[in-house]
Specification:
Blueprint (H helix, E strand, L loop, with lengths): L4 H9 L1 H8 L1 H24 L3 H7 L2 H17 L15 H35 L6 H32 L4 H32 L11 H32 L8 H55 L3 H6 L2 H4 L2 H6 L1
Helix pairs in contact: 2-3, 3-5, 3-6, 3-7, 6-7, 6-10, 7-8, 8-9, 8-10, 9-10
Length: about 325
């Protein structure tokens, strides 16, 4: 059918997005989005077992998220066709499948962490705290917000898995509760540390000018945040197995979880470094103008004073007019 110019523009503008979604990576990102929906639905299903929360939240949302999440996952997932090994880390297919599928989780929880950090900083400022207290409050806010949500999602996954294994609702709820409590302390602590290394950084002046110090700072952020995220993913895997009374072993599944975590952590540090660089660039571009304005204001004050000699002011007063000797002397 013939399209008018506006319809053509809209159609052509969606081509890049449609092309991306049709790639293996794009399909697995959609599958990962389905996983996030299932986790949230399972978490809601678990918490609504409580009578009061069940009345407040209802069951419909949980069922919808689980149903549509599973459908989205099954319609799009393209699994990695090899067993995970060290060679997987240099295999593009691994990144297009397993890593891409994990991306929505990071994208879901990162904004929560940033929002929590903003709220923590605002609360500290409102309380009159200054200096190092503000970034510490930001770290705590980031850890509580993202760590709490992540722990709830992990608990929902365990609840769903236990039910699939044939456990009763009481058994599944108990395992989910253990998962949430263990993950809450673990995730909040590590997420606060990740916010510090990825977004606040280790060197306050590394981005003042781009050079070797900048590259060292970025390298430190990437390595430390990758390590923290690897430990966190491995810990979550172990906690889930412990809560379900499954064997705990250093197997390929655990290694893969830690590897994906490290990759996501490194990416998070890259985002944080880019933000720091842009912020520093904004400060550098604004500084000359601010300095010039302050200098001009400082120069204007003595000039105006010099242009207003004391003698005319005195001679214009009635008292000065009555003192001819004083005015003549001046």
């Amino acid at each position: 059918a013939d399209l008018n110019p506006i319809q053509k523009a809209v159609a052509y503008s969606t081509y890049p997005l449609q092309w991306l979604l049709d790639t293996t990576a794009g399909k697995n990102i959609q599958a990962g989005t389905g996983n996030v929906m299932q986790s949230l639905g399972s978490a809601l299903d678990w918490v609504t077992q409580n009578e009061l929360l069940g009345k407040l939240l209802g069951k419909d949302t949980a069922e919808w998220l689980q149903e549509h999440g599973q459908k989205t996952y099954e319609e799009n997932v393209v699994p990695y066709d090899k067993e995970f090994s060290a060679a997987s880390l240099v295999d593009p297919k691994f990144y297009a499948t397993t890593v891409a599928q994990s991306l929505p989780y990071s994208l879901a929880f990162m904004p929560l962490g940033l929002a929590g950090a903003s709220a923590g900083g605002s609360a500290a400022t409102a309380l009159g705290l200054t200096g190092k207290s503000v970034p510490i409050a930001q770290m705590i806010g980031a850890g509580v917000a993202s760590g709490g949500a992540e722990s709830l999602a992990e608990a929902g996954n365990v609840y769903s898995e236990m039910l699939e294994k044939g456990a009763s609702q009481d058994e599944a709820s108990e395992a989910a509760g253990k998962t949430f409590l263990a993950n809450a302390a673990f995730n909040m602590l590590l997420n606060a540390g990740e916010y510090k290394t990825a977004f606040q950084g280790l060197s306050s002046d590394a981005f003042e000018s781009i050079g070797k110090e900048t590259l060292r700072e970025i390298g430190k952020r990437v390595v430390l945040t990758a390590g923290q995220e690897a430990i966190q993913e491995g810990g979550q895997d172990i906690i889930s197995r412990w809560a379900q009374k499954d064997p705990i072993a250093l197997d390929n599944e655990l290694a893969q979880s830690m590897a994906v975590g490290a990759i996501m952590g490194g990416g998070m540090a890259g985002v944080g470094s880019a933000g720091s660089a842009l912020e520093a660039a904004g400060v550098r571009s604004a500084t000359p103008g601010v300095i010039q304005e302050v200098a001009q204001e400082a120069q204007q004050v003595p000039v105006e004073q010099e242009q207003q000699p004391a003698t005319p002011q005195l001679t214009q007063t009635p008292i000065a007019g009555e003192l001819p000797l004083l005015t003549e002397t001046r």
